[in-house]
Amino acid sequence: MKIGIVGYGNLGRGVEKAISANEDQELVAVFTRRDPGSVKIATAGVPVYHTDKLEEMRSEIDVLILCGGSATDLPEMTPKYAAMYNVIDSFDTHANIPAHFANVDAASRAAGKIGIISCGWDPGMFSLNRLYAHSILPDGQDYTFWGRGVSQGHSDAIRRIDGVLDARQYTVPVPEALERVRKGENPALTTRQKHTRECFVVTAEGADKAKIEEQIKTMPNYFSDYDTTVTFISQEELNEKHAGLPHGGSVIYSGQTGENHHVIEYRLQLDSNPEFTGSILAACARAAYRMNQEGLSGAKTLFDVAPAYLSPCSGEELRKHFL
Amino acid sequence: MKIGIVGYGNLGRGVEKAISANEDQELVAVFTRRDPGSVKIATAGVPVYHTDKLEEMRSEIDVLILCGGSATDLPEMTPKYAAMYNVIDSFDTHANIPAHFANVDAASRAAGKIGIISCGWDPGMFSLNRLYAHSILPDGQDYTFWGRGVSQGHSDAIRRIDGVLDARQYTVPVPEALERVRKGENPALTTRQKHTRECFVVTAEGADKAKIEEQIKTMPNYFSDYDTTVTFISQEELNEKHAGLPHGGSVIYSGQTGENHHVIEYRLQLDSNPEFTGSILAACARAAYRMNQEGLSGAKTLFDVAPAYLSPCSGEELRKHFL
């Protein structure tokens, strides 16, 4: 199947790498809103076009993977391209998912195409695990822990403070909280009891470090509800020790059948968040293509995708090797 | 939806308990090949019938959950009842799944019904996790560890030895092997390196314990490939300390995107294997009913079931609460 990528940041590069690992997928082109001449991609021989060219490439692309941000890009981009292509996105602004789903659904249905939204690991694989666990054991509750991993949103928030040159923020689950949930204690946990935040910050010469530390720790929504540590380091140390984008976490479901207790945990330890997320998007592109080939259309999430659609293997192969 | 249970052993009782926890499901009857008068069930007011009565109850039951054994019951039972009802089973004889699937598919299709086979945690939820992981990261390998938990098949094998009155066998993952896999080392592991087997055995007075221990440890297929420990205990101690049927385990997938490594783990810790398995079967009954209502028919596995079908919640509720 022929794939196009829109947007070439970390996630777009992750999708590109995933497509190159999938024998049944071929990258047709990368599309950018920047000057295409300024974008150098990893795959040899594949063109970079301006997004304007998408109007005229419908017959050449089976699925378009949209690698924009959830804040402003995807709410506009996904419905727009859903009217022309099967599309995949990783929309993750939770409160706006119903509206986004409705917009994509209208566009996809009218076009007779499939649009799978919110494909990633959270929302995405973590969501699936919450759903499966609740469906099996209605009497129970789920806990989601993120990290240890880099939060790009929190890192950006620190970078916006005056006197900060660069920053990397790690979200870290509190070990005692994880342990209590894994034991099936079903504790009530506050935000502060679940995660801590570690910040590594590079400042300009002469910056007031005490003031910067105070600004970080009291920042509403981002840090004020957490136990936060701030460590000032040099740009060299940040480049050397904190260049990667690792992430991960656990969905833990603690449920019961009468007096018997059961704990289900789905855990990810990822060296590269954008490459893992990109790999999920590529698998979802396979599902969208096949579901559309079967005549299905409209907006979907991973909840609506029979798992077999994600795999390159046939039903016979799946039953033989994975069941 | 109206559910019937065929077979009332540990698994049948687990399904019964699961149905009582599901507000959208109602147990219509339990069916047995024994004398129905000899079977007392937990749910008040629900009749027990002989399986012969299934011929005449098609209009009263939406889904039939088959709780027989994989060795001799299900290969005959599932195709037979698939010709009359939507059916669910937990068939787990891996080598015979293709033939079983084909038999159920022919019967279900002819009847315009759905038959979901091999619903449990392995095969079942573990299989799903192998499939999802392979679909996301084609470059990697899966490891499955079982336990610590009671293997009923191995316990039965010990009970068949002369001089043994009762026995309980625990399958236990080797901690070092688990740790190496979780670290992403991708080790090649022999059967012996992955699991040990712990046996608690009650013998008849005057039995030759040394000989029994030797017979257990050298039993082909069951024990000879494992490091096995045998502990002789009294019937009282076995009843007191080993009455439960706990189980669990982990599917660990260790994969890479180029130089970056990712570990995905799905882990179960179950107080009661039959109650958890029964809960999966009940969720699959919900899916079978809905898929059939939409006009689908034929044999399926969890690979073919869009996750949303398993949940009592609507698409809107799922996207709002679980995505």
Secondary-structure map:
The structure is a homodimer of 323-residue chains.
Chain A: E1 2-6, H1 10-21, E2 26-32, E3 48-50, E4 63-66, H2 73-82, E5 86-88, H3 97-111, E6 114-116, H4 125-136, E7 140-146, E8 149-150, H5 152-159, E9 164-173, H6 175-182, H7 191-194, E10 195-203, H8 209-217, E11 227-232, H9 235-241, E12 247-257, E13 260-270, H10 273-293, E14 298-300, H11 315-321
Which key phrases capture this entry?
35% helix; globular; four-stranded mixed β-sheet; alpha/beta; homodimer
Characterization of this structure:
By secondary structure, chain A is an alpha/beta fold. In chain A, 35% of the residues lie in helices and 26% in strands. Chain A has 11 helices and 14 strands. A 7-stranded parallel beta sheet of chain A has the order 3-2-1-4-5-6-14, with helices on both faces. In chain A, strand 5 (86-88), helix 3 and strand 6 form a beta-alpha-beta unit. In chain A, helix 1 packs across helix 10 and helix 2 (73-82) packs parallel to helix 3. Chain A is globular, with a radius of gyration of 21 Å. The first copy, chain A, starts with a strand and ends with a helix. The mean pLDDT of chain A is 97. At the A-B interface, helix 1, helix 3, helix 4, strand 13 and helix 10 of A face helix 1, helix 3, helix 4, strand 13 and helix 10 of B.
Q: Helical amount among residues of chain A, as a percent range? A: 25-40%
Number of helices of chain A: 11
Biggest interface between chains: A-B, 68 and 68 residues
User: Approximately how much beta-strand content do the residues of chain A carry?
Assistant: 25-35%
